[in-house]
Amino acid sequence: MTVTIKDVAKKSGVSISTVSRVINNSKPVSNEIRQRVMSVIKETGYVPNPVARSLVTKKSQLIGVIVPDISNFFIGELLNGIEEVGKIYEYDILLCNSYGEMEEELKYINLLKSKQVAGIVFVTWKMSDEHVKAIEEGNLPAVYISKNAHNFDVYSVSIENERAAYEMTKYLIQKGHTNIGFIRSSIEDDLVDSQRFRGYKNALTDSGLEINQRIIKEGDTTSESGYYLMNEILESNDMPHAMFATNDEVAIGAINCILDKGYKVPDDISVVGFNDIKLASLYRPSLTTIKQPIYDMGAVSIRMIVKMIDGEQLEDKHTYLPYELIERQSVKEKK
């Protein structure tokens, strides 16, 4: 049988409004009454109705989170940061998985508004004006994690992708590699991928090296695609010294192909990735990669939401977190 606030009031010998004041800390009550009510709540296991509570406090304890693919490594780590920091500030998460479909994203934005969430963390592969308009119409605090978020006048969290890719390419060059290939996304208007590709090209150009189009491939950002595209490169007459993949899944697929074809990593071909998913350190050879602070991106995004809910001023709209080049076993200096 569900315990109600009426049951708590009756057992405590006080009014329902007094129980409400104790739960929501809305008006002062004596210590003796507070302790009596709290003791009954503990004894009965009463759980306050969050909707009713929000009507009293004028503040919802729900934050909506929309993600494009809950099974994605990147998304999973983001959610860890969002949920754990949310708990610290006593917010529950209402999670929506859009499968990257714009129609679903817009539907979930409207659903979250109807649920009276206190704010929204919106994670999408590609933002649009429609997304921003739909969220702003609800007058809700919102933080965006998206490949093109910095093109909009919104609060966002990311890293400097071009600079990170430039640094990784220079690292390979310093290891003696000159014929460096790149496997990138074929998705049109993929801004993050374009930034990483630009960083790669600029590093080669600044070092006086050729951009070898024969060992640059485009495809899906999956390990299967990495395998297939690496196979195309190996079947050509142009053997790369090193390969830079746009993410770790693609890099791992490329390594699998190289090994299946009888070559060694890193003895014959060095391979690097981007993101530093958990599998990157567990795989053998372990993957050299750019560590994107994925957990921190989730944690910072919800902390920004809480600050906005509390009326605090945020210094910058676009927050760029530090990245790190992680050296592991998949790169060898070329003699």
TrEMBL record:
Keywords: DNA-binding, Transcription, Transcription regulation. InterPro entries: HTH_LacI (IPR000843), LacI/GalR-like_sensor (IPR046335), Lambda_DNA-bd_dom_sf (IPR010982), Peripla_BP_I (IPR028082). Gene3D superfamilies: 3.40.50.2300, lambda repressor-like DNA-binding domains (1.10.260.40). Residues 3-57 form the HTH lacI-type domain. The keyword DNA-binding applies. SUPFAM superfamilies: lambda repressor-like DNA-binding domains, Periplasmic binding protein-like I. It holds the Pfam family Peripla_BP_3. GO terms for molecular function: DNA-binding transcription factor activity; transcription cis-regulatory region binding. PANTHER family: HTH-TYPE TRANSCRIPTIONAL REGULATOR EBGR (PTHR30146:SF149), LACI-RELATED TRANSCRIPTIONAL REPRESSOR (PTHR30146). This is Catabolite control protein A. It comes from Alkalithermobacter paradoxus. The gene is ccpA.
